[in-house]
Design a protein that fits this description.
alpha+beta; FAD/NAD(P)-binding domain; Flavocytochrome C3, Chain A, domain 1; 6-stranded mixed β-sheet; 4-stranded antiparallel β-sheet; about 25% helix; binds flavin-adenine dinucleotide
Amino acid sequence: MLEWHDTDILILGSGGAGLFAALHALQANPALRVTVAVKGLLGKSGCTRMVQGGYNVSLHPGDSVERHFMDTVVGGKWLPDQALAWRLCATAPERVQELENEIGCFFDRNPDGTLHGKAFAGQSFDRTVHKGDLTGIEIINRLMEQVWARPVERLEEHRALALIPASDGASLSGVLLVDMRSGAFRFVRARAVLLATGGGPTMYRYHTPSGDKSMDGLAMALRVGLGLRDMEMVQFHPTGLLAGQETRMTGTVLEEGLRGAGGYLLDGAGRRFMLDYDPRGERATRDIVSRAMYAEMRKGNTTPGGGLYIQMSHLGPDEVRRQFRGMVQRCADCGFDLAGGRVEVVPTAHYLMGGVICDETTATALPGLF
Ligand SMILES: Cc1cc2nc3c(=O)[nH]c(=O)nc-3n(C[C@H](O)[C@H](O)[C@H](O)COP(=O)(O)OP(=O)(O)OC[C@H]3O[C@@H](n4cnc5c(N)ncnc54)[C@H](O)[C@@H]3O)c2cc1C
């Protein structure tokens, strides 16, 4: 039994990308029929909700879009698509203002009222705008409220299975989905489809993304003949929590700001090793720190659990509790004292840098698919 549904714009995925796109489409033309189809629940699935650290944006005197762009391209070893990297950096100030002034987010501030920028690795300026260390919940909850308040059609617990080209193969006709509650198949015919299903390298033993991220969106694109790029570029986050094999908390991330604020990485014997690998120490980019950690682990310099330690206590336990309430609580839930002790960590698969080849407007080689 195949059920049919017609819409103007079909958005697959309800993370930050999908929900922002739904709002922007209605802003551009309130008469459009916009449908969001998502494997989980709207705004409650995917990785945006899990963001801890914050959002990189150049806002302050002394910083600039050019500087943000150079940090991005140099950190990426000159491999990023520079047109896309520029677009990301150049539109970030507008996006963060939109998040506060139109969507209703409220980020942490400096005493003078300007937005506070956290220190993140690989940055020449402290530009990570945040809400404590649970930024994603603030962003996705406010976006979700805005979408709920508008006439956006929702197909929740619907998994997209296949992109269906038009009969002449020249454009996209729609998407085949399965309603995961009933098992029914549903074909959604759309004038434009946005693939906002994200990446998510969840095939690694230690990984951070949510379980619904299985890269099936990219597989659908590949099956209709679209090119993918940089699929080998998996970013490993250095500090995945190592809490034992029996808990799904193992692999979840302890945020970058811990190293940015001055946290140390120590081997099993308590020796600080990062300065052997990079003069920036723990504030080197994630690829360098993760490789250094892996090298130490291969040398056998490990903790009892087979990883390494992160230590924050030298910064003062009260200060650590104040700055990183969420991280301290997460560790305490697993029986570890992040503020006053040492916590075992391992590099964990975090982010897929690759994806479907597209231009700066996100248009792909298949007309109708973005
Ligand atoms: C633990 C963690 C911490 C992070 N911290 C930061 C940070 O501090 N700063 C930062 O900039 N980035 C951070 N990131 C990365 C950031 O989360 C992502 O880059 C961003 O949220 C991606 O947004 P998105 O909308 O593309 O994808 P997501 O938010 O992951 O949403 C994808 C959506 O697609 C849906 N979906 C997937 N497959 C299908 C399918 N077949 N059919 C239908 N729906 C489907 C999912 O259910 C979900 O709703 C972090 C990531 C993780 C995992």
